[in-house]
Amino acid sequence: MVQQVTKGIKISVETQFEGMFYKNYRSQFAFGYRITIENQSNDSVQLQSRFWQIKDALNNTQTVSGEGVVGKQPFLEPGERHTYKSGCLLTGSFGAMSGHYNMLNLSTSNNFKVKIPSFKLSAPYTLN
């Protein structure tokens, strides 16, 4: 598990290899990840949007951005947490993801970024 705290918001990430399949004569490697967002600050916050950079073993980079996470824009009071699961496909058996969440401090109406720590995605057989 990797973790990071930015401005009182703790991000924890756990990953899992889901399997491999073939699509259009190409290998696809499926990875799942579970993210917990914990509000350790004294203010209420809302997750507005996300930004991801996903790199595969050949250093190909895919950028993903959009509103919320898995269709939600959660509100977090101090001490609360939100956990969600998602996933991605890579063309190689390992890669990495990193990014940030755009958050809104509901007490001050200020927007701020929360860093998502870089985490590795790897099929178990690729690590020796």
What does this structure look like?
InterPro entries: ApaG-like, ApaG_domain, ApaG_sf. It holds the Pfam family DUF525. This is Co2+/Mg2+ efflux protein ApaG. By secondary structure, the chain is mostly beta strands. It has one domain: Sandwich (Immunoglobulin-like). Helices cover 0% and strands 70% of the residues. It contains no helices and 9 strands. Strands 4, 5, 6, 8 and 9 form a 5-stranded antiparallel beta sheet that branches. It is elongated. The mean pLDDT is 94.
What is the gist of this entry?
It comes from Christiangramia forsetii. This protein is mainly beta. The protein contains no helices and nine strands.
Write the layout of secondary structure elements.
Blueprint: E1 2-6, E2 9-23, E3 26-39, E4 45-56, E5 61-67, E6 75-76, E7 81-90, E8 94-105, E9 110-122
Antiparallel strand pairs: 1-2, 2-3, 3-7, 4-5, 4-6, 4-8, 8-9
